[in-house]
């Protein structure tokens, strides 16, 4: 649920689906599952080719994400060699 924090989204989910879990349990289970799944998710078609092209031609680019540092580090494993600066959601002030 875009635009909501993890706990608020979990509260809505628990309430709407009448889950036998607390919002905190949903957040914990979700985080564990996402950390397990993210490293094996393939890049979208064309992403690797685009990143290599931009890097080869010294064209600056950025990855924008609303993820925190841990989520970002888990997701961005393949193109990381070409990224010189990484700023995650929790680091922006």
From TrEMBL:
Coiled coil: none annotated. Its EC number is 3.1.3.96. InterPro entries: HAD-like_sf, HAD_sf, PGP-like_dom2. GO terms for molecular function: pseudouridine 5'-phosphatase activity. SUPFAM superfamilies: HAD-like. It is an enzyme of class 3 (hydrolase). It comes from the Eukaryota. Keywords: Hydrolase. This is Pseudouridine-5'-phosphatase. It comes from Desmophyllum pertusum. The lineage of its organism: Eukaryota, Metazoa, Cnidaria, Anthozoa, Hexacorallia. The gene is HDHD1.
């Amino acid at each position: 649920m875009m635009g909501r924090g993890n706990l608020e989204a979990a509260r809505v989910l628990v309430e709407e689906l009448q889950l036998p879990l607390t919002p905190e349990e949903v957040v914990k289970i979700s985080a564990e599952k996402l950390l397990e799944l993210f490293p094996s998710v393939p890049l979208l078609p064309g992403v690797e080719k685009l990143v290599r092209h931009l890097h080869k031609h010294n064209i600056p680019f950025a990855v924008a994400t609303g993820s925190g540092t841990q989520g970002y580090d888990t997701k961005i494993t393949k193109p990381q060699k070409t990224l010189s600066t990484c700023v995650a959601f929790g680091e922006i002030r």
